UniProtKB/TrEMBL annotation:
Transmembrane segments: 12-37, 80-101, 113-132, 144-165, 186-206, 261-280
Keyword Cell membrane among record annotations: yes
Keyword annotations of the record: Cell membrane, Membrane, Transmembrane, Transmembrane helix, Transport
Pfam family, one: BPD_transp_1
Membrane topology label: Multi-pass membrane protein
A GO CC annotation given for this chain: plasma membrane
GO aspect biological process, one term: transmembrane transport
Similarity annotation: Belongs to the binding-protein-dependent transport system permease family.
Source organism superkingdom: Bacteria
Protein name: ABC transporter permease
Domain ABC transmembrane type-1: 78-280
UniProt key word Transmembrane helix: yes
UniProt-listed CDD domains: TM_PBP2
Amino acid sequence: MTITLKRTKSDYIVDFFLYVSMTLFGLVTLFPLYYVFIMSITPIAEVLRNGGFVIWPGEMTLEAYKYIFSSDRIPNALKITIIVTLLGTFLNLMVTMFLAYPLSKRFLPGRNFVLIGIVFTMLFSGGLIPLYLVVSATGLLNTIWALIIPGLVSSFNMLIMKTYFENLPGEIEEAAKVDGCSDIQTLFKIVLPLSMPIIATLGLFYGVNHWNAYFSGIMYLTDRALMPIQVVLRNMIVTPNVSSELGVNISELQQLPPETIKMATVVVAIIPILIVYPLLQKYFVKGMLLGSIKG
């Protein structure tokens, strides 16, 4: 038998205010993205006519995108960012998984000592200068590995994955071992297929972190050919001469305002994440809940 609760007038009033609040919050959140995109496709004449602030352009142009891709700097920066994001995320997940799985076993000798050491690193760190000296001493400066190896594993993400592994039924692994599976085979054939929500969630965390990272590029890279898109974008924002950063003829820039070039670069930098995030969103809530609550 289905029980239907009768909604009162106060319920509808509360729903109305909730929907209005959520709509306003969504508009406030999306407006900066909308404004950046609109500015990137607005002709210079209209930008100047409206004092640099345009909500809806009368005309649209893709000249800014043609301009930034006429230089090798943006395509090369995108290539470096894609390589670092894909390779870095894969290595992040592998190292996190190989660390979290054995630590999820209570019978592991020295387990508590290792966990205390990992939690300690979440509270205290050596600082930027010792980190830079380590990266320099290991020969990672001016290589893409400097953007990956120093942050190869996140203690927080490792603890979430460890908790997720602890919540998996132990009987499944015992049955796999009875069938003759080794620990590695159990991990790859049994545990990982059951752990796709947490893998997708942490992969999203690691991937977004790699894609948006710019500070490590500023610290460890001086070769422009190795700079990711976020570092190029940062340099474009802080420098008064956009053409010098892109390495193109300054006469071409006279047809476009520098702000339009910057906005187009911002759009190019955020589109891949906007595409990937909805694909992994369905795993996000489930992965975080199962990985943070001990059942």
